[in-house]
Amino acid sequence: MGSLVKTARGLLGQTGELMRAVGLKGRAFVVTDQNVYAYFGQPLSESLAQAGFEPVVNTLNPGEQTKTLRSLEVLYDWLVDARAERSDVVVALGGGVVGDLAGFLAASYLRGMSLVQVPTTLLAQVDSSIGGKTGVNHAKGKNLIGAFYQANLVIIDPAVLTNLPQREFRGGLGEVVKYGVILDAELFDLIEAKQVEILKQDTPVVDYIVERCADLKMKVVGEDEREAGPRMILNFGHTIGHAIEAATNYEALLHGEAIGIGMSGAAQIAVQLGMLDSASCQRLQALLKTLGLPYAARGLAWEVVRDGMSLDKKTRAGKINWVLPTAIGTVEVTDQVPDDVVESVLKTLLNA
Ligand SMILES: NC(=O)c1ccc[n+]([C@@H]2O[C@H](COP(=O)([O-])OP(=O)(O)OC[C@H]3O[C@@H](n4cnc5c(N)ncnc54)[C@H](O)[C@@H]3O)[C@@H](O)[C@H]2O)c1
Ligand SMILES: [Zn+2]
User: Fold this and answer.
1) 23 CA distance to ligand 2 centroid (A)?
2) 243 in Cβ contact with 305 (< 8 Å)
3) Has this prediction a pTM greater than 0.90?
């Protein structure tokens, strides 16, 4: 029971019509943040009103510190005061922060309202808006509270990426490169060939890439909605990446930047285990470098990163499931990685 995902330039202005076409009705409770509202609040509200939805907008402070139970409480109060009904729609207009928060709001209020995701960052378009993971952070850890809840509709308009700060865009490209390595060698070739054009953000290549990655994510999660097995390959680069994010308090690096380092680490582990040729590993690192993503990090103690890895949610019965490339375009999952291999790669990666 996956979501209906629509991808095309200009779709944001058709949000209302698209919602009607899938049978949604009632009031539209739009959750967004101040940055996104400034660009797209008006056109979205107009589109909703034109299609007969009554838009009500709640604009939050931008940033990860908004993804909390406290914000959720404010949003519940808002829905209670407005007497929102189960058949009304929550519309998440923004990046992954807004999407995760508003998604969990829709999942939990009245045990489930209708939900439409309108992702506005590259990361949200190719990753977080698809797959149904919603939730908020706890003071003791990221994404600890949440639910799987599929949106009725995901509306992806690559034109909105024009205004995205370049660093955020590059961070999103980390996930894009990930899809190339785990599933699609041709996509990897394309990113390599068109890197200069891609970094311009407002270009047809980006439209193609967004659509391709959204399709790949839908396919993978469609086979495995609750993350029992196949979906694990999406975790490529995330074992080390998440540990680096935690070790730097989610402040120094963007998610995609940490994943860049993590992908480079996983590729090096694969080389040491004889699963991957070193030329492919170097190709990956060179691509990350030209996209402005790090492939190593200085100044972190490798032991801290190692300890952080075992706390990851994807660890099963104390064993880390490593997603390792065997070529550009294919990966294998294994829990058979010797500790000394992990140690030597982490030391190289963190310049110990
Ligand atoms: N649910 C999932 O499967 C999943 C997957 C990956 C990440 N996430 C979550 O996503 C969050 C990160 O999301 P993000 O990277 O999108 O960050 P974000 O939502 O904080 O957005 C980044 C910044 O860009 C601004 N912005 C958004 N769209 C813009 C636009 N079109 N033009 C100009 N500025 C714009 C925002 O206001 C914000 O300042 C994290 O909380 C992470 O845990 C969830
Ligand atoms: Zn990720």
Assistant:
1) 32
2) yes
3) yes
